[in-house]
Amino acid sequence: MAWRAARSLLVLHQQLQAGAPRARPPGTGADEWGLIGDAAHDPTSDHSPHNFPGWGNQIVTAADFPNRPDLGLDAHRVLDDIRRSHDGRVKYGISNGQMFSSYAVSGYGAWTWRPYNPKNGDRHFTHGHLSVVGDARADGTQPWQTIGAGLGGDEEDDDDMGASFGPISIEREGVTSLTIPPVQAGLADPRPAWLNFCNDTGQVYGLRVWYTTGNETFSPFPGTSNGQLALRSGQRWSGDIPAGTSCLSILRQAIDADGNVVAPTAEYRAYAGHLTCAIERGAVKR
């Protein structure tokens, strides 16, 4: 199966080459802008394609880029910018014999540099490494808060980097729980967002859709019937995700003889085929 890179990593490479044009190939080697790993990489590496339930298959979640301060690209400074931004797409970064992660590790707090001494001896002095999280957030195409972020557009205009994340599979059993950057409230991603469904099953199916802003309570998604949603074949449904939403809860339901959405029973069963949703994010107003 063909692999692909998380879209945020493609944005990173494009942005760094825009911010440090002398460091783009042929000023540096194309292989210094690595995504997928070679045979020497551990298959568990983020440079190797992995399958991520609820997001996608054969996705690479790591990118390398040259450390060439002489050409305007200081990898450690780039990663320190990203570290200080607390971008929700980040898993960890490595450069100059140091590493930080978005989570605490053995005595070091989240977003804190710590020593990096790998067994293979590559302490990343010649290049920087950024790994992103293994979910739909990593496909976010908003600019990284480092060099190149302001290039390519008028700051008074809207950011044209809207994005759609999906398809996201809806679990056949249990609840599909989607953790997302807080809508219109994330420091790195303050955009509005919409939840989208489209029925191509040839029959009506039902869902229960709830959301939370992280306040320890869940509420029915706006535009549904107390959280219940029935979709006819060929129907597209889109709803504004409320401001502050940080988690969506989606559960398959059944349709009774009268066309009502009901909890599954032996008589009325939830649709058992493949179902998906997608999340669309709008532009950032600068």
Question: What would a concise description of this structure say?
Answer:
The protein has 286 residues and is mainly beta. Helix content is 8%, strand content 30%. It has helices at 7-19, 75-85; strands at 4-5, 50-52, 56-60, 62-66, 90-95, 98-101, 114-115, 127-132, 163-169, 176-179, 193-198, 205-212, 219-220, 228-231, 236-240, 247-255, 261-262, 276-281.
Describe the structure.
This protein has 286 residues and is mainly β. 8% of the residues lie in helices and 30% in strands. The chain contains two helices and 18 strands. The chain has helices at residues 7-19, 75-85; strands spanning 4-5, 50-52, 56-60, 62-66, 90-95, 98-101, 114-115, 127-132, 163-169, 176-179, 193-198, 205-212, 219-220, 228-231, 236-240, 247-255, 261-262, 276-281. Strands 10, 12, 13, 14, 16 and 17 form a six-stranded antiparallel sheet that branches. The two termini are 40 Å apart. The model is unreliable at 152-160 (pLDDT under 50).
